[in-house]
């Protein structure tokens, strides 16, 4: 599905209308989004499926981030949007659980601004990860949470601006369920 629009919301996630995706990012309008985090346990360590965003993305190209993320379309339910986008970008589908939400605003050098009310969704998967959409994703790999902490300390500039706050929410949800 081509995701041409975003749902404009207020700080309580109440719908205020819709806007074309690029225009919303040019104007820095608050809009609804979701971030999917897929985990697995490997060698007694919890790992997160990370993706490196394709260099041609309209912002944050080449940066590492969570498994996938996008924007719900008008009339599309968050969980359904997350599952659909996971299939579109990463080539598989799993059940997702709602972990929480947060708001953030980040301006980029190209004049675009992400201003999102981001819903964090988590799931588990231990299958093939090489079926990802090469037009969307440059690379995909499993990264231990320990390694992620090192990335954050040693090279935080390689991570998207929404990744760490969303990861914190995903980890809190994991702790609640385990």
Question: What labels describe this entry?
Answer:
Nucleoside Triphosphate Pyrophosphohydrolase; 178 residues; 4 helices; 25% helix; alpha+beta
Explain what the structure shows.
The protein is an alpha+beta fold. It has helices at 21-27, 78-90, 145-154, 163-177; strands at 5-9, 15-20, 31-42, 45-53, 64-65, 68-70, 97-107, 113-124, 137-144. The radius of gyration is 15 Å and the shape is globular. The strands form 2 sheets. Strands 3, 4, 5, 6, 7, 8 and 9 form a 7-stranded mixed beta sheet that branches. It has one domain (5-177): Nucleoside Triphosphate Pyrophosphohydrolase. It is built from 4 helices and 9 strands, in the order E-E-H-E-E-E-E-H-E-E-E-H-H. The relative contact order is 0.22. It starts with a strand and ends with a helix.
Number of helices: 4
Structural class: alpha+beta
- The CATH superfamily name is Nucleoside Triphosphate Pyrophosphohydrolase
* Sheet having the most strands: 7 strands, mixed
Beginning-to-end CA distance, first to last residue? 34 Å
Quickly name the level 1 CATH class. Answer: Alpha Beta
* Total DSSP E strands: 9
Question: Whole-number radius of gyration?
Answer: 15 Å
List the helices and strands in order. EEHEEEEHEEEHH
Number of domains: 1
What form results from the Cα inertia axes? globular
Helical fraction: 25-40%
In the CATH hierarchy, what is the architecture at level 2? Answer: Alpha-Beta Complex
How is the CATH topology named? Nucleoside Triphosphate Pyrophosphohydrolase
């Amino acid at each position: 599905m081509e995701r041409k629009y975003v749902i404009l919301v207020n700080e309580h996630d109440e719908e205020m209308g819709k806007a074309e995706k690029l225009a919303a990012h040019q104007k820095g309008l608050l809009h609804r989004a979701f971030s999917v985090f897929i985990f697995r346990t490997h060698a007694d360590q919890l790992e997160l499926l990370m993706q490196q965003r394709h260099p041609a993305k309209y912002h944050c190209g080449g940066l590492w981030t969570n498994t996938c993320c996008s924007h719900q379309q008008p009339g599309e339910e968050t969980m359904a949007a997350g599952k659909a986008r996971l299939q579109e970008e990463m080539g598989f589908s799993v059940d997702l659980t709602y972990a929480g939400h947060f708001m953030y605003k980040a301006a980029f050098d190209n004049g675009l601004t992400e201003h999102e009310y981001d819903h964090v969704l988590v799931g588990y998967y231990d299958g093939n990860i090489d079926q990802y959409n090469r037009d969307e994703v440059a690379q995909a790999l499993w990264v231990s949470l320990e390694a992620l902490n090192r990335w954050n300390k040693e090279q935080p500039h390689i991570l998207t601006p929404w990744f760490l706050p969303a990861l914190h929410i995903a980890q809190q949800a994991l702790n609640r369920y385990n």
